[in-house]
Each structure stands twice: as structure tokens, then as C-alpha cells.
Amino acid sequence: MPRRYVQLDVFASRPGAGNPLAVVLDADGLDDAAMQAIARWTRLPETTFVFPATSDDATHRIRIFSPRREVPFAGHPSVGTAHVLLDAGLATPRDGLLVQDGIAGKLPLRVHGEGSERTIAVRVPRARVQEIATPDDPRLRGPLAGLRLGELPPVLMDGGRRWWLAELADEAHLRSIEPDWNAISTLAEATDSMGLFVYARSSDPVYHFAVRAFVGAPACFEDAASGAANATLAAWLAERDALPAQPGGFYRVSQGREVGFDAIIELTVDADGDVWSGGRAVPVVTGTLEWAE
């Protein structure tokens, strides 16, 4: 049967600037093997599959697949899928919230605005500090070699996916560095982490941090925009009382310019210490998927 299919850019207001995502609506009837095959075929960072909610306290249910495996939670697929559902008239916010059901449990998504100005933010699973390290840690010497570090120490955070975070001295340095992929891959495999996420404060009027995410396993690449990785940074900054001095714990980050994108991700740490990660999204391809099992 034909299934409604959308490809969009998440954390962007124009095509080509954000992190691409495929969304398959009407996913009932697809088994695990078919969903994995479709995700492998799209070759996008993630593909989501939408199912009807199975309880009254959720508006929709999703499963998220990378080309290699199912993912319990990721930020840009959650945010992008919510944008698609609203555009298709398949979900209605309740008191400004959608509620996504999935492997990571029921997660609220806060909706602000309408049309091209609409932003959606998901409350991410709580990230926790796993380990605070020093730059001369043998595991970090290679990945951090030649980098001018900032004030906060390197830290391993777990928000469903584990990331090593390292503050760099300034934005210009962050944007100029060339990652040592062999060292980052070794770090990712040795510590069961995604790799190295570097960040630097910015004086830009639009965003407060510039960030780069170097994925070291299972493949080596720089992520265009990662809501979940940025959420681990927000949790770390809150832990160290180092959030930007903005009302309501809100700030923005810039990610992806070094790999041809220009994403803006919005983060909020609320009064309860929960992190909300989100932004805009723009549809690029709308049609139907015909997949014979």
C-alpha cells in the first residue's frame, strides 16, 4: 500500500541548512526488517515510522531507525516527526504539547507558533555525568591533541547516547580544527560512546555557542545537527552553573557549517532541570512510499 512519505530539514528554516530526516506515515504493517531496509535505502541519518498512539496520554507513537540499527531516542527525528504530523493534520497539541511514545517512553514536545515560524522542542531523557576527565587522560590525548581548550574539563555524558564533551577556547578555533578521525574512532570504541562533541562560546547575536559533533563509531562523520548531543551539553552546563545568562534557561547553538549546513538548535533548561531541545523544520520532499515486502 502507498504510505505517505516526507523528507525534511530539521533545525532549519530553509532547505539544505538542517539535518535531513525521512518520515514514513501510516507505518502499520511494516515489520522490523522492512523498517530497517527502508532506513538503509533512504541513507539519511535517521528515518522515523509513525504509528497510532496506543494510550490516551500520547498523541502518536514512533520508531526511529538509522541505516544500521534502531535508535531508542534522537532529538532531530522526534522534533521533525512532530512538525510533519502537525502539517498533515494527524496530531493536535493539548495545552501546547504533543506527547511522543516510543522506546524511550512518553516524551512531551512543546509547540510554539504556527506555519514557517513554528518551533517544536522535545523534553529529552535526562542526561547524566558519567565521568569527568583531565586533558592528559590517555584516552583523550589523541582526540584533543593540538586543541586549545576552554575552562570546563572534558566530561563523558550519557543521555541515551554517550558523548565526550570538550570546551574549546573560542569559536574561531572550533571552526578551524581538523579532527583526528583515527583517535576519535578509538575513543568511541574504547568508551562505548558516539565520539567527541566540542563547543565554544560565541558573541554572535543569534546563537550563544558554536558546536561540532565528531561521530567515531560505527562510522566516522561529522553530524550536521544533533538535538540529543546538544541536550547533553545543556545538562552539563546546568550541572556546572555555566549556562548563558538568558531568561528562562534558553539559548541557541550553531552547528553544521563545516560540513555544508547551517543549523540553529534551541535549548532550554527549565526550572525542574529538564532539558528541551528543538527548533524549526522545513519540508523538502512530500509524496508516497511504495515498499513491497
Describe this structure in words.
The mean pLDDT is 96. The protein has six helices and 18 strands. The protein is globular and about 55 Å long. The N and C termini lie close together (10 Å). The protein has an 18-stranded mixed beta sheet that branches. The protein has helices at 32-42, 75-88, 138-144, 171-176, 181-191, 227-239, and strands spanning 3-10, 19-24, 47-51, 60-65, 70-71, 97-102, 105-112, 119-123, 128-132, 155-158, 162-167, 195-201, 209-215, 221-223, 250-255, 263-269, 275-279, 281-289. Strand 7 and strand 8 form a beta hairpin. It is an alpha+beta fold and 293 residues long.
Chart the SSEs and their pairings.
Layout: E1 3-10, E2 19-24, H1 32-42, E3 47-51, E4 60-65, E5 70-71, H2 75-88, E6 97-102, E7 105-112, E8 119-123, E9 128-132, H3 138-144, E10 155-158, E11 162-167, H4 171-176, H5 181-191, E12 195-201, E13 209-215, E14 221-223, H6 227-239, E15 250-255, E16 263-269, E17 275-279, E18 281-289
Parallel strand pairs: 2-3, 4-6, 11-12, 13-15
Antiparallel strand pairs: 1-2, 1-18, 3-4, 4-5, 6-7, 7-8, 8-17, 9-10, 10-11, 12-13, 13-14, 15-16, 16-17
Helix pairs in contact: 3-5
